[in-house]
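for ur thesis appendix - Transposase. copy paste whatever u need, i formatted it the way the template wanted (i think)
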Amino acid sequence: QRDVFYDFKGKKLTEEVLDELNYQFMRRLEKEGLITLKELYIDGTKIEANANRYTFVWRGSLNYHLAGLLDTIDALYAKYNAFLSENGYGPRYDLGDAHMFVIEGMEKVRKVINENRRRKLTKHKKISNNTVIEIDHCSPLEILKLQKNLERIAEGEGIGFVYGKGKHKPEIQKLYEELEECGIRLMEYKECFEIMGKDRNSYSKTDLEA
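the 3d part is after this line
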């Protein structure tokens, strides 16, 4: 039904048709005595100059990119567990396998993403992906917990983190920094969702109320 509507809107509602409909509508209002055509008013609404579509944050886009980030984090969890297992750090530091956290609503988001990929192949209109997602405080803390474990291992094994151009980072540091980057991005998404709230699907970076 949605595709039929957009097809009708794009092919049938031409500029000429809309002009004619507007003319008929105005004449009907005049005939009913609801308006006169003696005076013309110009709308003086002021629109913020910087509030263009590129300054807006969209819920559907956030959901799409969050799904990708969670896939990356899931892979890092597997990498973390493999790192502990291969080096014997689990029993040595009394650390069990890490289990990926779950964010409620993401299953529905992923279904829409997959459906839209299918629709793209068949050249159908995409469906909106505006499921309300709330990232709780625990999820970023779970990533931080893994980082703390890696710090503990590095200290216990005498592995120092190195910085600067040309320095070869140890594997444990690379894993630590990958987790850190994902944790920061997850917090950014959390902040975006909190600004947006549950009652709207976008906001402007230059005007958080827009």
